[in-house]
């Protein structure tokens, strides 16, 4: 049968007291954004649930998009029929014919929110259970954990039937926790860090450092492609490309090799923090993971972190590489991340970076740099682009062909 609506159950946000209303409004906005390819769908957000009226849109197209939106615990596609006992019986039989394979147990779970309806919930359970037994005399009804829980809800505008509960992405609606700047390289870790941040409600903007001609056009494209993979959770993400060539050349020219990495990272962090201020972000996010490489020893983190008081959240800091890879595969960024286009850090990587950089030396070498000037010039060359999900891009292209 054709779905007429999808009923969405909220996740954790139902426990958020007085913030609840703004959480629900944000979720409704995110759902609207994610489903912008289907303007026919109407969204009704209520206190406990959200109803998506499909208005003819194929539910199967909507389900995979909905499954990625944070803040949704689960959802049930449902069929709407008239509020007439015979019609409801027919619909129940039709659904069971479609899904019953001869083995499953079932239960009718009727609920009557329209109390003017002629049967109460018990009577409905009875009548509809019998309707199922009429067509499948051997079927077993089971009250506890039935294989097929067939929900029937009599509402003001009709009867809604559903038998499936699809797991949502959990988390909090993106945007309810404010905005963070994600330092996005082309590697495995930073996209995963971005995913986890969004899962906890943080809206992200991607900040990427590029050093052409030392880094290629492909390396930049890879970072943008990774951003595309993160957009289904939010609808769109602003991608900020930072020109980093001059800074890397300057560091290479004036600083001893052992300190290139530390000072490069400090410059990246200073710049990200300036961009954060301009873009009204609250925090910085990166993909650092403890002990992975020289820049990620605790001593390095301390030396790099010294340039800002802004909170830096490192969602994958304590995860093992294999655990990070598992998530990267799940969110489909892994294959892109392992493409061999070198980013600015690999190309300027000294043979032996200091794993325990000393702060006095860092300060001493940085005196040789015109830090303010370098930052100012990099900021004047920012390129900002709004990145959207793949399907939307294809559709808008098709659309422009028609014009
Ligand atoms: P990733 O897999 O995310 O690249 P990594 O294990 O390769 O991480 P590093 O290269 O040391 O580790 O980078 C640590 C973090 O610094 C990255 O996760 C990212 O947040 C940030 N970073 C590194 N290079 C860039 C870049 N070119 N642009 C933006 N951020 C960067
Ligand atoms: Mg990297």
From TrEMBL:
Pathway: Cofactor biosynthesis; thiamine diphosphate biosynthesis. GO terms for cellular component: cytosol. GO terms for biological process: thiamine biosynthetic process; thiamine diphosphate biosynthetic process; thiazole biosynthetic process; tRNA 4-thiouridine biosynthesis. It is found in: Cytoplasm. ATP binds at residues 183-184, 208-209, 265, 287, 296. The keyword Phosphoprotein does not apply. The keyword Thylakoid does not apply. One of its GO terms (molecular function) is tRNA binding. It catalyses: [ThiS sulfur-carrier protein]-C-terminal Gly-Gly-AMP + S-sulfanyl-L-cysteinyl-[cysteine desulfurase] + AH2 = [ThiS sulfur-carrier protein]-C-terminal-Gly-aminoethanethioate + L-cysteinyl-[cysteine desulfurase] + A + AMP + 2 H(+); [ThiI sulfur-carrier protein]-S-sulfanyl-L-cysteine + a uridine in tRNA + 2 reduced [2Fe-2S]-[ferredoxin] + ATP + H(+) = [ThiI sulfur-carrier protein]-L-cysteine + a 4-thiouridine in tRNA + 2 oxidized [2Fe-2S]-[ferredoxin] + AMP + diphosphate. SMART domains: THUMP. Keywords: ATP-binding, Cytoplasm, Nucleotide-binding, RNA-binding, Thiamine biosynthesis, Transferase, tRNA-binding. Its EC number is 2.8.1.4. Residues 60-165 form the THUMP domain. Catalyzes the ATP-dependent transfer of a sulfur to tRNA to produce 4-thiouridine in position 8 of tRNAs, which functions as a near-UV photosensor. Also catalyzes the transfer of sulfur to the sulfur carrier protein ThiS, forming ThiS-thiocarboxylate. This is a step in the synthesis of thiazole, in the thiamine biosynthesis pathway. The sulfur is donated as persulfide by IscS. Belongs to the ThiI family. This is Probable tRNA sulfurtransferase. It comes from Candidatus Enterococcus wittei.
